[in-house]
What we know:
This protein is α/β, with parallel strands linked by helices. The chain has helices at residues 2-10, 34-48, 62-72, 93-96, 107-111, 113-124, 129-139, 158-162, 164-177, 183-191, 205-225, 249-261, 291-303; strands at residues 56-59, 83-87, 235-244, 269-280. Helix 12 (249-261) links the parallel strand 3 and strand 4 (269-280). The chain is globular. The two termini are 24 Å apart.
Amino acid sequence: MGSWDGLAKKYKLRCIAPDRFGLGGSGAVPLEYRIQAWLDMVPALLAHLHVKHIAIITHSNGTIYTLNTLLHLRHLLHPTRPFVAFLAPWVHTSHSGSLTALSFVPDGLIHKWPSIAKFMNTDIAPMFMFSGQIFNGITKSMLSGAQLESPGQQDYDPELKKIFPDLERLIPKVFLEENISGGADEAFLSLKRGDKWTWGLFADTDEAVSMVVSQERDLALVVNSSQDELHQEKLRIEVFFAKSDIMIGKKGQEWFNQCWQSQDISDVISYTSETVPNSSHDTIGGPEHGVFARLLQEISLAFG
């Protein structure tokens, strides 16, 4: 995140990444209130920081929160150049066919994940060096998130790039030393487990997309009928899939695309998607792929 912040400053942008509830410095929020609490927190945070408009870059199960932000807080996007990017977006297992083994994991074990994770990191890993490597593979996807020889990689300070390998090694360790009690609720939310999960106004991504499209068309009618001289561009959505994504697989990626492409939305939404070579679900936002730098450049130009 520190490397992203430095790059954002280069483009005269501010990078804001709120902790999820029960993670990092944020207090716990019960599963059934997580979405509403997010919708209450975001405008309050932006008002506190004196930020009027934002572009959104979201990763993995941040997809659920971002779709809710689009539906409830659309006014926070840039008034004439609204922009949202999805990196390795989350797709429920019923559509992806991935992570099917999780359906056999008891709810009680998921509830205990935070304490197990801390135990593995602080007690077991020092005793067995290989255990840390195994555990890193499990926990990296909870940290939330084109071999483009794009403006991306060279935009990072050379001295900063030298410490990227160390950062990748230390991030999971630091993550587990902070509060991770909300990790179990994030898992229940993503997997739609238990009787208290809710994704807000919609039950799944395809339903949310239909609502977003309808909302954009209503907004276009309002803008076109107003006397405002500002030109309202289409909502711009860019999606970056990982080349290898164990969380949703190719089937999940195709389904996510289909949610947006099953109907003609070109009148109100500009939708593009691409696969980032040599990337995984967890590394897609890393500096080696240049995606984040490319997005910051696009946002900087859009915000003028």
